[in-house]
Amino acid sequence: MAIKILTTADIHIGRTSSGAVQIGDNSSTRNAWVRITDYAIEEDIHVLVIAGDIVEHANRYFEAASALEAGLAKLDQAGISVFLVSGNHDYDVLPALMERRQFENVHFLGQGGDWEFKTVEIAGQKIQFAGWSFPKMHYYNDPLYDFPESEVDKNAICIGLIHGDYENKESSYAPLQLNTMTGKGIDIWIMGHIHKPEQFNTAPLIFYPGSPQALSAKEKVEHGAVLLTVSKQGTIQKEVVPFSSVRYEEIEIDISECSEQDEIRAKIIDNCDSFIKNKIERSDYLELLSFDVILTGTQVDISKLEEWIENWDIHEFNRDIGGLHVSVRKVDHQCKAQVGDLETLSKEPTPAGILAKIILDLEAGDSSELLDLIKKDGWSSIKALNSHNTYLPLRDSDGIEQYDKDDLNNLINQECHRLLSELMQTKAEG
To answer: 45 is in which domain, residue-wise?
Structure first.
């Protein structure tokens, strides 16, 4: 009989998906946890693995305690083994929760930053779990430096649970490295910390299952848990179970052929519908699909386009398609000025020529004295915005997107095209 191991991380019980008011409490991580536990019981899962950040910060203690205990009690009663470690968000909360209740089949590993091992036998196969938990909010060293290889059971399938920042040596959240995770006798590494699901290696298998509930629009990918099916021969099959009730997507729409705002609005709706039809496989749990729309192509009057976008009621794009709520979270543009040959224009000693030269330098990755001054001033303003205390609560809850240098280049490029389109409009009217 094959062994079924359901893996997840970063549930963050106590949070909800950003901007998902249409589905109310169904956007909560608490409900995602209920979906996971119900699925594990209904599908006869043998083991549930949770790689940290199960609950949100300490101020969510009572909400998390009730939901987590109820789910663990159901799993324990069903005879499903649960292995979990704490992350940087619940380094102190999870141990306190686990001390409140003792479950026969629930195993909290690695408390206090010490590696801990537990072996179980399922269907005649031995599986050993190795776990390490965050002892404090920040941890600057690779936990694998102190990994006790001598405790690995070479006659068992060995699975490691760890919360950390993969291939980011400067991280303050347990920086992990491929070269320290290989050669340890571990067959599978299940990691927490990064909300986007991603696999990095096959032997050993190293992956982030990601958060089961999409929490912010930065996470534009299908979310769920990862089901590992281990055969008697030790082969491993990996499958995503899409638990999230919310999915965020980004769609680019070329509006070069559109000159009226009604044409653009119709094209947005048509393209979103086409995306749903051709690229979205509807899961049993998905209730809300939220789009970020990026308009691309060329426009004669970019200022007019920006005025239209600013005055649109974003809710006019919201609709219901077969019980699926579809919304547009925001509309932005990366449109370019509709001009002739930028190369020729850039040689002119005119304001339009200067703008054309800046645009070409940006696109080519070149520098100039003027562009360097613009970037320096712009980056100074962005750093001030990113660090301003006014936005601290939003940053802590992933409610605000921080700008980086690529964003700065895009902003400069966009502004140059807007100004260039205004100059060309003035020239044509004159």
So the answer is: 3-241
